[in-house]
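Course assignment 3, question 2. Fill in each field.
Student: A.L.
Task: Predict the tertiary structure for the chain below.
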Amino acid sequence: MNEGLKQARLAKNLSQTELAKRIGVSRQTINMIENDAYNPTIRLCIKICKELDVTLNDLFWKE
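Answer field:
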């Protein structure tokens, strides 16, 4: 599970639907990313990061 994405989204008080609308994808896409069921493109990752004011490392880098 991508807890970083979920936590960043919740910190901005955004639902999956609201985030999806802002970046031009479906709510299901956000859900699948949060559940590690979809590997987003780098462009989509950047859109998400810009919308949530976080870095790629914050959301997508797993140690």
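Instructor remarks: The chain has a mean pLDDT of 94. Residues 3-60 form a domain with the 434 Repressor (Amino-terminal Domain) fold (CATH 1.10.260.40).
Grade: pending
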